[in-house]
Amino acid sequence: MRILRIVALCAVISAVLSAGQSAGVSENSIPGTYTTVWVPGTAGIEIDGDLSDWTAIGVTSAAIEYVTTNIVSSDGRTSGQTSAYVQCFADSDYVYVGVTVRDDHPVFGRQGFGRAWRDDAVGISFYGGISLRHLVDQKYQGSDGQIIVSADQRGGTLIEGGVPMNDRTVSPGLLQFPRLWRALGAKAALRRQSGGYTVEVGIPVEIMQWVPGMRPDYLKMNVRVFDSDGGPSFARSVSWSNDPYNTSSRSNEFYKKIRFTDVAGPGQPRLLEPPTANRRNTVLAALGNTARGDTLRAVSSLEALPREPWMLPILAGVRQAGGDWDASVPILNEIIEREGAQSVLIWARERLATAYRRMGDVGAAVAQYERLASMDSPDAHEVGVSGLAECESSLHGDLAAVQVYRAFLVKSGGFNGRLTSELGQLLARIGKYEEAVAAYRQVVDAAGTTAGEQSHALLRIQQLQDEGKAPGDAVETAWRIQRISSDSDPSRQASVRLLVSTVNRRSGAAKTKGTGPSSTLQQVLSEKRTPFPARQLLDLGNLFAAEGRLDDAVAAFNKVLTIEQAPQSDRGIALLRMQETLAAQGKGDLSIEAGLRLQTSFDDQMETRLRSLNLLKGSCKLMRAGEARSSATRAYEDAAKRFANDLRRWMKSGDSSSQQPYFLLKLFTVADPDIAATAEQDMLLR
What we know:
Helices cover 49% and strands 14% of the residues. The chain is of the alpha+beta class. The chain has a 15-stranded mixed sheet that branches. A hairpin with a 5-residue loop joins strand 8 (145-151) and strand 9. Helix 15 packs parallel to helix 17 (517-527) and helix 19 packs antiparallel against helix 20 (568-584).
């Protein structure tokens, strides 16, 4: 499309454009590509947690060295408390991942299904890179799945994780059921040894949508090692790729790239497993139907399979996904009768209690929660107490639920981080402000509380202070959150958004340049002695804008565009906020230029583009009549048609499980029906 060039452009917008041109993260901007081997045929190794049989294949190892603490990401390297090494290769049927972990105090078997990452565990997120999804949309940033490997209380290997709910958009979540990866043909083993443990995983190549027997071009993957140190959740983790925003569970943007070369000499003849392959195809089709809401078809295909133990949790989960709670009850009871793994038992009782509550049988739900609360597992205990409190609230009100929490806390010694936090939330709901703040302060001050748990509790305190008309206290709490948390912490981000709202409500006297919250935020960030990361710069820019410091806001948003490893979504938002700020300054030509740049350089950020288009249209109308206005209007119309066509291509890509493009197209049609109709006619003529 034609890009508007306005004659009198200042140096600011030139900097914006040059930064915007580097908005995409190139392959080479992610340090290091791991090169390994591909074995034609079958490699002939045993998935048993012993990696000694990998030596003959010539697989190299790489350090897993980027440190994160709880949910809070940092740019630090390993400190010696937890260290790990990863190896990877592939043959005609499987991708193999081996991880060696040095940990003097491994902790396993305390959690229910889906929460093994709170203990010691290895997480593998992967994307095949040449799948149908990638052919439809080469900017696809989701994953092909995530595998979490840990151990149960008996020492057996646990394999958790799931596959994306959605076939195309950046993963909004994973479909996760016990035994799912076994049903899909994945293999895993965890072996404990002196000073740590090893994990060995085999992932069928069909999960990556590769053709069995053909060497793949590349694989994108990240590996994280979680270390709990015996606390209620993991204290730290180490990541193979440098993922500064902790996005690996939902996006492949920062995954390590793995390239394959042929190994010298063929492997053994391929070991074909038709029954496993047929089962895998059936289960994958059922998961796809579940994601699209067609659970009747999913259940029908699953019930045609042999009724083996691995299938029962998947069938129960799909039944519940379709709202068929009655039908899930006998399946869950069968799992409880037959199952030996504690993590699956916790899952089954939790799901059974949920089914009874949905069916209106609170008494039966209470019985299941009582069983959970009495199990020898901290996780089951917490789930049980939370469920009992919710049931008591529905039967006798919130004050009765408060007594449930307090009784169990007294029995357990007076403190439990999760239950104390839930008690604080309940107290806040019934208007007991001081008691709620006291509960959250207990969480903040408790020994062993992680930075993520502290910042979450402080955020709740900040919200209560703000609601209690104590904005000064709320601001001070916000600064404390900024000091203890890092860029990817969602509580930190929510805290600054609340702070912006607080600033907007304060009098003009509080917004004097150099004395407002933005200056304090700059100081707090400087105290960390690290470069301002993208999301904190976005927050800082929003504070500048709230205080009326619009030039400073533009500079902050511009700086986001220069950060190489900032996610595309953050860069797109920065350019949108710059467009809005320039418009507020009356710099319509510069605002239009920034908006057009957003349309051409961030074509996968559809929601941000739509917001930008609406602003572009308004800016064009505010220009004086003449050649410049006509040129800007034509540029807007071209950008709007391109946006509409991109949405229609998205809808025709076969991803009926995503409603986002339909929703955005509806909004766009309301905003500009003429262009929407013209774009539709253009598509029909092609």
